[in-house]
Amino acid sequence: MNGPDARVALPGPGRARLWQQRVTPGSARSCTSLLSREERLRAAAMTDAARARFTVARGVLRGVLGSGLGLRPDRVPLRVTCTRCGASDHGPVRLELPGVGLALSLAHSDELAAVTVAHGERGVGVDVEAGTSIGDLGTLARRVFAPADRDRWQTLPAARARPTVLAAWACGEAYAKATGLGLGTALAGVGARLDGVGRLVVAGPRELDGWSVRTVPARLSGYAAAVATRHEVRLSGGDFEHTGTECANGGAAALSGQATAHGG
Ligand SMILES: [Zn+2]
């Protein structure tokens, strides 16, 4: 068990924290014990790869919240409700604990899972995207960039073209998750474009009704990650070690110089 000193510090007012964890058979195995019974049943019906991603993302979330709140991870009262159809097998995850106002967001792609927790109930969104999981880059670019920026994007060297379009996509997904907007609307709102030297720029809080969307360093190379928070919220990387298992060991990303995608 974690002693009081080993407790995860959950974000206080005006703060959000991000945890990233590599998805491996080992991390999935050790995260299994953190899941609720219902989640374990759900996971059992998935393919191996999907089960590993689900287990690590939910496991890290439950581990972080359980440690920070002093609860058994499998007993942390999480609820999932789709904001569109009301189903409970997909959609945003909420903490249902009276008197505790925390906003949560989860993401996973291929071998990387991420969890963001923000103080308050105004929402937060995280997204990670694996370079290996995208199909045709040009198709993706057509969805994230307006024509002029797409032309500029096409002039980027191949080594920059892929991470740039992935990052733009991740920004749209993170904003969609934070706000509940549909992905198309969110991508249009984020309005990804390229500046004069080909760096990605996205809309700022003035255009996004007080939301701030930023790219953050992904813990694995070849991945993009983005987080959307209320503008005034400060984001930091979290350290989480679930003593006794290998789940989420050292899951923090360095977040210095995170705001590469930020402009107006
Ligand atoms: Zn639904």
TrEMBL record:
Entry keyword Transferase: yes
Signal sequence region: none
Domain of life: Bacteria
Residues passing through the membrane, by range: none
Keywords linked to the UniProt accession: Transferase
Stretches assigned to the 4'-phosphopantetheinyl transferase domain: 123-203
Keyword Transferase among UniProt keywords: yes
SUPFAM superfamilies on file: 4'-phosphopantetheinyl transferase
Gene Ontology MF term list: holo-[acyl-carrier-protein] synthase activity; magnesium ion binding
Stated name of the protein: 4'-phosphopantetheinyl transferase superfamily protein
Source organism of this protein record: Streptomyces tardus
Phylogenetic lineage: Bacteria, Bacillati, Actinomycetota, Actinomycetes, Kitasatosporales
